[in-house]
Amino acid sequence: MSQNHRSRGLIAAVVILVIFLVADSAALAYFISHNQKQQQDATQTTQETLAKTDSDNDGLSDAQEKTIKTNPYTKDTDNDGVDDAAEVTAKSDPLVADSATTTSATKPSTPTAASDTNCTTQNIVVSLPVADQVFTSPAKISGKAIAFEGTVSWRIKDATGSQLAKGTITTVGDAAQCAPFESNITFPLPSTTNGTLEFYTVSAKDGSEQDLVSVPVKF
After folding, report:
1. Bond into 138 cis (ω within 30)
2. Beta partners for residue 133, in sequence order
């Protein structure tokens, strides 16, 4: 065999090897890409499932509970008698028993409604609803308050903090005294099983919210 033939044979072998390597690389790239897509699809499916699933039926999805580090299989992670969703709505820490912020409390109305009938410890005392009461529209709300011009504001939120409805009630009697209030309210059907009914007054000086009382309810 001549030198020329050997060279051609060598070149042909190299070409075949290059074609094989290119094809093999393309196959490998396709396999990696396909595998990554499957992993992404699986991750997306898991996230979508978590977003829709509420294992403990407390009004917070498993994905939300994962984010705030509460137990998705227990309604009341800190075991303080208030469901996680109600604490989140009331801006209380669902990981710390009986926690509350300076502007909102998780269950102030239940003890004060029975004992503080003269508004001695706070300006709004809620009689109805009681904490964790099943609350369906139309619903009765009542209590006593010391409020500017006798006006008490209310709003109802679902477990995600979305406002369902709001309004005002006027107390009966002297606004400077602990006067009673009562009203029937309506609100749309919530998308969660828990929520919060908030009562507050509005400052005549700067329009800020004052005397906030939050009552956790069930829908």
Report:
1. yes
2. 217
* pTM to 2 decimal places: 0.51
DSSP-derived secondary structure letter, 190? P
User: What are the start-end ranges of the E strands in the chain?
Assistant: 124-128, 133-134, 139-145, 151-158, 163-170, 179-185, 194-202, 209-218
- Decide the pairing of beta strands 124-128 and 133-134: unpaired
Whole-angstrom Cα distance, residue 161 to residue 184?
A: 22
pLDDT digits over 62-71, tens only?
888 888 888 8
C-alpha dihedral, 150 to 129 to 83 to 92, nearest 10°: 10
Q: Which residue has the tokens 């005397």?
A: 211
State the Cα torsion 138-108-166-128 to the nearest 10°. 20
**Do residues 182 and 142 lie in contact, with contact meaning Cβ atoms separated by under 8 Å?**
yes
Helix, strand, coil fractions of the chain, as percent rounded to 5: 35, 25, 40
Tokens at 130, concatenated: 């009681």
pLDDT in tens, 79-98: 776 778 877 776 678 888 65
**CB-CB contact of 64 with 54 (8 Å):** no
- Residue whose structure tokens are 């005549």: 204
